[in-house]
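Write out this protein's structure.
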Amino acid sequence: MSGQTLIFGVGAAKAGTSWLFDYLAHHDEVYLPTVKELHYFNALEFGRGKFFREMHERQLADFEWKMIFAKDEALRPYRVQAAADLSRWLDVFDGQNANDAGYLDYLGRGRPEKLIGDITPAYALLSAATFKRMAGLMERVRFVYLIREPVERLWSQLRMDAGKQGEAEALKRMDDFLEGGQKNVAERSNYRRTINRLWQAMPREALHIEFFERLFSAEAIAKLCAFLGITPKAADFDKTVHQSRVSAGLDEGRRARAEALLKPQYNFVRDKLGGLPPEWTARMVTA
């Protein structure tokens, strides 16, 4: 028995998973490869291994190019390690065939660190059956699911997806969502489905749910570290990781319509997670 804990960060997208990854990656009792979002289980479940493999190949090529041509030498050690980790991951997983032993070894099984893991927000879309398989990979497995005020999470993802195209494109995507489009983004907003599947797959004490709005506090970090079995370490709560390019707020009319569409999520949190946080109700424009 190694005593190691395996953590899965299963989402939600734009709810603090990159900040969490950064915090854990710099913790002395944790080992995480530099590659966030391995997409191992969703590649297997949804048959999208070719897409994710090509994505990782592009990332590797980008790191290799920057190692040669980029002038910011301070980032060179990170890029060297990231390129090595990506190359190693591409050797482990072909995108099609399960290789759980290779996956666990890649994550650091058997290393001296107390905690190893995989933080891939897209895992929020997985089935209960896949969550159950993940929960059985090691003796001690823990899941972390971060959730954010639903409209704010949605708007943040749409702004990120719009990228350099800016606010007009983000609003166009929001209007598409309000008319029944943006299916993938809508799926990422379905906290009720993801949490119910997680609860079906494992004992509830194996799942830690935290609100994005409360994550950046010493109390929340102490609670999380106790859940993961590691010593709390001071965190940089002012550090921003993967901020959207578009920073505009959402107008009241669109927000009200989005709240109505996401009402089942508010109701679930209210009824099953101890009530709506005041940090959420303060933002809402509808009762």
